[in-house]
From TrEMBL:
It catalyses: a 3-demethylubiquinol + S-adenosyl-L-methionine = a ubiquinol + S-adenosyl-L-homocysteine + H(+); a 3,4-dihydroxy-5-(all-trans-polyprenyl)benzoate + S-adenosyl-L-methionine = a 4-hydroxy-3-methoxy-5-(all-trans-polyprenyl)benzoate + S-adenosyl-L-homocysteine + H(+); a 3-demethylubiquinone + S-adenosyl-L-methionine = a ubiquinone + S-adenosyl-L-homocysteine. Belongs to the class I-like SAM-binding methyltransferase superfamily. UbiG/COQ3 family. Its EC number is 2.1.1.64, 2.1.1.-, 2.1.1.114. This is Ubiquinone biosynthesis O-methyltransferase, mitochondrial. Residues 12-24 have a biased composition (Polar residues). SUPFAM superfamilies: S-adenosyl-L-methionine-dependent methyltransferases.
Amino acid sequence: MSRTFGDRTMHVYSQASKNSQRNLLCSSRSIQRNNERHSHSTIDTVEVEVFSKHMSDWWNPDGKLALLHGFNALRVPLIRDGLVQCATEERKLQPLKNIKILDVGCGGGILSEALARLGATITGIDASEDLIKIADEHKNIDPKIAKCKPTYIHTTVEDHVNKFACCYNCVVASEVIEHVNNQDLFVKSCVRALVPGGKIFFTTPNRTRLSQLVVILLAERMLKMVPDGAHEYEKFVTPTELSFMLEKNNCHVESTYGIQYNPLTKKWSFSTYQHLMYAMQAQKLS
């Protein structure tokens, strides 16, 4: 009796293992096909247009981009602490002073300005000309960044890095990789922008049925918390896939954190649970 049970268990385990391998293979092939279709560009014009439509609402903290505004409370300390282990007394107010940061997919500058307030030298790039105009206009409003205003450029990371390879101490791609075509080229270009020893930070949804339910069906389509049409489930990237792309480009992944949002308190927090969203920090080795 026990042998029969054991045989059945082994059969189930073997079948589950085969299914897992098949799913991983299908996922890899899907990403590869997407990359091959867009081998020379990361731009998804449809998604660029989706976000450009909300340019007038970009700096409204209670508007369609409210989640991004609130997200700064989590991602800014993540980037700051990842770059500066301990600040001297003179650098406490501007701990990122003299650190060159490339904000890829900067949009209207929500994250760029927050990092500039910490003293960083910011270059923000985006594929949307409309959003770059919004960012350029808004940087003149806050007196706290009068001496360290971000520089904004309408371009893609693959084009930008042709002129500015090995130029930045830090690259940030926050809520961006899930919106681009050819994610391999995107990661490769982001890493090329880094100096050896530089840090790179990603935040993005995981590709799970839970993230599809929460991010697309609930937050986007039902509750209208994010712009409609902003996400495609097939473009979501798992931590394993992103780690592989980074390691393939000579980076060492230092940490991965789960991210969650509480709609009652309207606050973001880190979590050990990575099935919904996650943040990843890596360092370029050479």
